[in-house]
Amino acid sequence: MQAKELKSGMWVEFQNGVAEVIDVDQEHNTVIIESMKDHRRININCNDLVDQPQLHTGCDHYY
Question: Its domain of life (predicted)?
């Protein structure tokens, strides 16, 4: 994914599971995410994220 495709509050998938986007840095193509497993905040490159349109705000499960 690219930073321009992301916004705060979105749900995305990364190597360790599902996370919520907290902040986006378009200049460096990075994003701060909060892992739903342990609520740890991680600064990660946007290329390492996978868009999951089946995830929706307020739920970390597929529907």
Answer: Bacteria
